[in-house]
Amino acid sequence: MNPITLPWPRRILISVLLGALAALASYAQVFWKQDEAIFDTFVGSWEYPPDPRLLVVAIDDASLQQLGQWPWPRSTHARLLDRLTAAGSQRVALDLVLSEPDRQDSAQDAELAAAIRRNGNVVLPVLAAPASGPRMAEELLPIPLIAANASTLGHSDIEVEADGVARGLYLTAGIGSPHWPAFGLALANLRGPLPGLRDPDIDTSSPYQWHRNHYVRVRFAGPPERFPQVSYADVLNGEVDPAVLRDRLVLVGLTASGIAPRLLTPTTREHWMSGTEYQANVASMLLSGKVINVLAPPWQAALSALLVALCALGLTLPRALLCAVLALPLTLLGSFALLRVGQFWFAPAAALGCMLAVICAWVLWRISAWRRQANSDALTGLGNRLRFEQTLQQEHEAGRRSGRPLTLVLIDVDHFKQHNDRHGHHAGDAVLRRIATEIRAHARRPRDMAARFGGDEFALILPDTTSEGAVQVIQDLIASVRAMSLSLGDGHDAQITLSVGLFTRVPSAITEPRHYFEGADAALYRAKAAGRDGYAAEEPGQ
């Protein structure tokens, strides 16, 4: 059946079912790897100028060479903070682990705490220690003496996907409830409602679990080393012009190889990005208003379902090929436009995968339909002359191998031209379709084949059938057609009869398919000469 002849309720039902499958695939994140590959392609080179207020003070290899082995005394960090305070830095984020006191010299803790107090705008990190075995998850805060003097604390938990790439983070997190802002958010010091994907059903009833909320994808300013950076040792030694530090949002953290946390990001797979620079990207993104929001899973699933349903529905329309050609690129383009224009990420892989499966199934179905049409009569749906000749050749060869008889039946509609001339071609076509249906019904076995040559000429190929068996089939066919009452559309009913010729032989080395046709045609001639409305078989001994 041609797809455009399907009833609309069936088209809609099929489209809805396929859309539901796409929604399920989207919700279950079946194609998450493909989604992340698309996301990386879309944002990998989507650069922007970073916020000019941000500055990284890097604990780099040069600093380690000058100041010695890590970790350094906390008094060293206190001296650095005093340098930044004197230069007029706006806010300082110390991305350092300070969760344990200095066991050798407690004065070091007091000195750092005093420097933090003098600055008045220092952000310190909260580390998340995940649950391990019997040990529950916990927050690793700076020691109370130091934490009490900080302006604010921020969690440094970075979301790393299953493929090892960091693409986003939760803007709030904490034990018991997501009460700590992200470290980059704390540095940016933004006020007002937070962006990001919210979890309205977040369960904060457990005071011992790490809860997260407000998930966003990071829009990176560029590849690693995109942000202005000065060496820790140079700032400490006063070798950096104070004007460079004035009114800056300063992020102090590790970048030295071997000790700095390293992250892979969509911007590059060749160079690692330090955790400090990742937090700088978070702060810059928030300050510049370039947050990439993620569509909530129900919206992702609904949009995927809609796209696949529309694609499936389009394939039932006359211009199905155009729909098949445009469906995939338009879906990708829509996801790209939504990201670049609206800063929303729609993961399109579930929709693309289901569309591709639907289009492939449609193409295979159409190829099968075209093959059937190439071997079928357009009016009746029976095999055409080409199919008839191929089947007769095949069954002749099969009968020669098996030694089983093969019967060919040729059928003519009696006085069909008179019916056609009297009642019109439309009525004649209706008669032929009814007769074809009856002939097809008598090709009962899988290898039996009914065909139409054209006009009012039909044929039946009956493999493994003796003359007696074929006669029974034909007698029943003639009786069934004779009993039909065919309305010709002008208030008249027609009585239709058939003339039939049969030829049965066991194929051998000396027979050919044309002998069967010639024999059945001769028998058909005798049936017509005998008055029609009957059959004739080949003469004995012929």
Automatic annotation (TrEMBL):
PANTHER family: DIGUANYLATE CYCLASE DGCC-RELATED (PTHR45138:SF24), REGULATORY COMPONENTS OF SENSORY TRANSDUCTION SYSTEM (PTHR45138). NCBIfam families: GGDEF. CDD domains: GGDEF. It comes from Stenotrophomonas aracearum. Keywords: Membrane, Transmembrane, Transmembrane helix. SMART domains: CHASE2 (SM01080), GGDEF (SM00267). Its EC number is 2.7.7.65. Residues 404-540 form the GGDEF domain. The chain crosses the membrane at residues 294-313, 320-339, 345-365. This is diguanylate cyclase. InterPro entries: CHASE2, Diguanylate_Cyclase, GGDEF_dom, Nucleotide_cyclase, Rev_trsase/Diguanyl_cyclase. Signal peptide: none annotated. Pfam families: CHASE2, GGDEF.
